[in-house]
Amino acid sequence: MAEALIASTAAEFAAALPGHGRLAGLDVGTKTVGLATCDAGWSYATPAETLRRTKFTADLELLKNFIVKHGIVRTPPAWAGILKGVTRDAVIELARGAGLTVLEEPLNRYDIYTADEAFFTGTASEIAPIREVDGRMVGAGRMGAVTGDLRQRFRQLVRG
Question: Domain total for the chain?
Fold first, then answer.
């Protein structure tokens, strides 16, 4: 289970850069590199959510964020400046294949704080549940049923 921080430092420069590319291994357009984690004095190992100029969340350091509220899966859309990923796309397809509604729409702090479940996706992390954000417990503070089901489906997909 992961803990995360939503940085108070907004990615002001992000509007000038495309959010779906990489430059020297870093996501371009969504990061205030270092500032997000330095906000709270956290180590670079702690995922930090960056806010866009609009105050909607984008994505975390090389991870894509999802929330679940009332059985509906939500994640920021590509136009919000996220780096689309293979794992993210696979999770969206798996969720829809399981009969879940998936909405790609901007998320704000309130959405994340009040989610029933939250999780990251990424190549290395695959699907990682989020226990708390900014010191606030997400849902029951443990992996939820939707996250667990998607994690199991993803592992079946990639491992056969």
Answer: 1
Question: Which domain range does residue 65 map to?
Answer: 2-159
| Interatomic CA distance for residues 68 and 35, integer angstroms | 28
Looking at residues 107-122, what average pLDDT do you find? 91
Q: Which helix (H) or strand (E) holds 130?
A: strand 126-133
**pTM for the full model?**
0.73
- Cβ atoms within 10 Å of 20's Cβ, excluding its own: 16
b/e sequence 93-108, b meaning 16+ C-beta within 10 Å: ebbeeeebebeeebbe
> What 3-state DSSP class applies to 97?
helix
Question: Residue 104 sits in a domain of what CATH number?
Answer: 3.20.10.10
Taking the C-alpha atoms of residue 76 and residue 84, their distance in angstroms, rounded to an integer, is 10
Q: How far apart are CA 40 and CA 158, in angstroms?
A: 36
- E strands in 54-106: 57-60, 64-69, 72-75, 102-104
